[in-house]
Design a protein that fits this description.
By secondary structure, this protein is an alpha+beta fold. The longest helix has 13 residues. The protein is built from 3 helices and 5 strands, in the order E-H-E-E-E-H-H-E. The model has no long low-confidence stretch (mean pLDDT 95). The structure holds FE2/S2 (inorganic) cluster.
């Protein structure tokens, strides 16, 4: 079983007013590619595209997960936020159970919280 921290990025998320178009042109796809590039060479992270996490009003949505840890769902990540997402993933990776203390979260993460789901 992989012990990597998995970052899922919704590639279907669109910015407010952005027309429906090819997925690869959407804000979520652009952010996914940003995160992928920013994480290049990081063998402790796995970046996975996902098509809709059903929180479409909070683009771009992402999840952080790892085996036997709580899974988090966050939203409101704009283009250019790949470094914030990687910082969040590193913070998450340092925990034994996936629970990130609120006072350790950077502002983007604190404001973007949507849900957390226990392991198993
Ligand atoms: S399109 Fe991204 S959460 Fe639905």
């Amino acid at each position: 079983m992989s012990e990597k921290t998995k970052i899922r990025v919704c590639v279907k998320c669109r910015a407010a007013g952005e027309p429906k178009g090819p997925i690869e042109d959407r804000m979520g796809s652009h952010l996914y590619r940003e995160v992928l590039a920013a994480a290049a060479g990081a063998d402790d992270l796995e970046i996975v595209p996902v098509e809709c996490l059903k929180v479409c009003v909070r683009p771009v949505t992402i999840t952080l997960s790892a085996p036997d840890k709580w899974t988090w769902l966050f939203g409101d990540f704009p283009l250019g936020s790949a470094s914030d997402i990687l910082s969040a993933a590193r913070l998450y990776a340092q925990t034994s159970d996936g629970l990130i203390a609120k006072d350790e979260m950077q502002p983007a993460l604190k404001l973007g919280q949507i849900a957390r789901v226990p392991p198993g």
